[in-house]
């Protein structure tokens, strides 16, 4: 089955995104405390594909050893998956992407994955500020031509259809 990797800094709203777009209130997830060994979680959706939940990155306090372990697991997964069609990167629309976000985007592009950026927490900014924030995201990530940014809110559900469209566009390739 095709796989879609989902990445995002911890606490950015990744599980809220998943829960909103697959219409489930609660998704089993292990707690992801800094320092704990983290694993990739696979969620089978409609017997049609997998969402692969990439453990949250951006822990400033994680030890070097833990970081190396994380990096190794990531390399192994991304280098070997033949069914991995695309990645979804969740970022917070309110702020410029962090260095960690940029690193994750570059990492995904390094494996030639099409990336759909979900700019979440859309409900937290004023309508008139949207274009400016989206532009900053494109600029800071140096978003490539084939990739898109989709404004999204797990609170209101706005952007849900666009997110699905982007996902389906790549699944059928
Ligand atoms: P994760 O660690 O990336 O999985 O983050 P969560 O999905 O647990 O979300 C972290 C916090 O942000 C929670 O308090 C959510 O309720 C909140 N949150 C997530 N998405 C949104 C959103 O679109 N709008 C608002 N207002 N809050 C959100």
Short description, anyone?
The chain is built from five helices and six strands, in the order βαββαβαβαβα. By secondary structure, it is an alpha/beta fold. Mean pLDDT is 86; it is low at 25-36.
Structural description of this entry:
The two termini are about 15 Å apart. It contains 5 helices and 6 strands, in the order βαββαβαβαβα. The model is unreliable at about 25-35 (pLDDT under 50). The protein has one domain (about 5-170): 3-Layer(aba) Sandwich (Rossmann fold). It is about 35% helix and about 20% strand. Strands 2-3-1-4-5-6 form a 6-stranded mixed beta sheet, sandwiched between helices. The chain binds guanosine-5'-diphosphate (GDP). Guanosine-5'-diphosphate binds near residues 11, 56 and 153. Its cofactor is Mg(2+). Belongs to the TRAFAC class TrmE-Era-EngA-EngB-Septin-like GTPase superfamily. EngB GTPase family. GO terms for molecular function: GTP binding; metal ion binding. This is Probable GTP-binding protein EngB.
What's the number of extended β-strand segments?
6
Question: What is the CATH fold-level name?
Answer: Rossmann fold
Classify the helix fraction into a percent range: 25-40%
CATH class: Alpha Beta
Number of domains: 1
What is the typical, i.e. mean, pLDDT? Answer: 86
Backbone structural class = alpha/beta
The biggest sheet, with number of strands, parallel, antiparallel or mixed sense and barrel status, is: 6 strands, mixed
**Strand order in space, largest sheet:** 2-3-1-4-5-6
Rounded to the nearest angstrom, the radius of gyration is 15 Å
3D shape: globular
Number of helices: 5
**Ligand types:** guanosine-5'-diphosphate
* CATH structural architecture: 3-Layer(aba) Sandwich
Extract low-pLDDT stretches. Answer: 25-36
Keywords: Cell cycle, Cell division, GTP-binding, Magnesium, Metal-binding, Nucleotide-binding, Septation
Cofactor: Mg(2+)
Domain EngB-type G: 1-173
Function: Necessary for normal cell division and for the maintenance of normal septation.
């Amino acid at each position: 089955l095709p796989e879609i990797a989902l990445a995002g800094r911890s606490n950015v709203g990744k599980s809220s995104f998943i829960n909103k777009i697959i219409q489930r209130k609660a998704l089993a997830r292990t707690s992801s405390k800094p320092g704990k060994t983290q694993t990739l979680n696979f969620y089978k959706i409609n017997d049609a594909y997998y969402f692969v939940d990439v453990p949250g990155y951006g822990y400033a306090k994680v030890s070097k050893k833990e970081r190396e372990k994380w990096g190794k697991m990531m390399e192994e997964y991304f280098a070997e998956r033949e069914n991995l069609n695309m990645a979804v990167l969740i970022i917070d629309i309110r702020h410029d992407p962090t260095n960690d976000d940029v690193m994750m985007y570059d990492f995904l592009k390094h494996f030639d994955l099409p990336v759909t950026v979900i700019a979440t927490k859309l409900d937290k900014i004023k309508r008139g500020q949207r274009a400016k924030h989206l532009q900053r995201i494109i600029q800071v990530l140096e978003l490539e031509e084939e990739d898109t940014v989709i404004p999204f809110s797990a609170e209101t559900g706005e952007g849900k259809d666009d997110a699905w469209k982007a996902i389906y566009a790549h699944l059928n390739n």
